[in-house]
Amino acid sequence: MLLVAAAFGSAVLSGVAGFGGGALMVPILVTALGPRNAVVVVTISQLASNGGRAWFNRTEIDRRLVGVCCLGGVPGAVAGSLLVTATPLDTHTRVIGGFLLALVLWRRLHPAAVHVPDPVFVVMNGLSGLGSGLVGSFGPLITPFFLARGLVRGAYIGTDAAAQLMVHITKLVVFGAVALLTVSTGLVGLVLVPPSIAGAWLGKQIVDRMPVGVFVAVVEIALVAAGVFLLVRGRS
Fold this sequence. Notes:
Layout: H1 2-17, H2 21-33, H3 35-56, H4 63-86, H5 89-108, H6 118-135, H7 143-148, H8 153-177, H9 183-191, H10 193-207, H11 213-235
Helix pairs in contact: 1-2, 1-3, 1-10, 2-3, 2-5, 2-11, 3-8, 3-9, 3-10, 4-6, 4-8, 5-11
């Protein structure tokens, strides 16, 4: 029930703020399932959440930009997913914790809004896919670049979700090939699909009715707390 509630809440936050949901799910799943299983399960949950956000914002998606993002995101996701099996569990836990803290720092120091050419999106989505494969969710890395491109609200959320959807599909294929995707992790992930889609729907309903600033602040505070917890836990 805790995981179901977390999946719903994180999907709502992602639907409103456009980021943060998967990252918030990771520390909860790491505590419950261990780092490697957490990466697999959060991928299934994020597949549903991103699929829902892409569908609910489908009329505003920049389809050309989605294709550009996939040029880097898909191969990056393959590399990151393969790295999961080669990373020691305690190191993996600390990597996830450090990533959460770095994510908040990135959000605070993100680049100013300038024109972002296609090659930058390819490179940044490659890094995002690599990180997503390794720690489960890395979408916020490219948030400032979507905003700098002029995409806001439904256009940003839908385009980012569609690009991330392809990354998560790629990760699941690799996880299945290296036997990380098992019956048990698959069933846990499937349980989180309905609340993830429902949360994406609710996020869409409120995204144009409520300021996102308070949601961003809550997400960042939670990410800092989770990052510190996982860094400490990884050393124990």
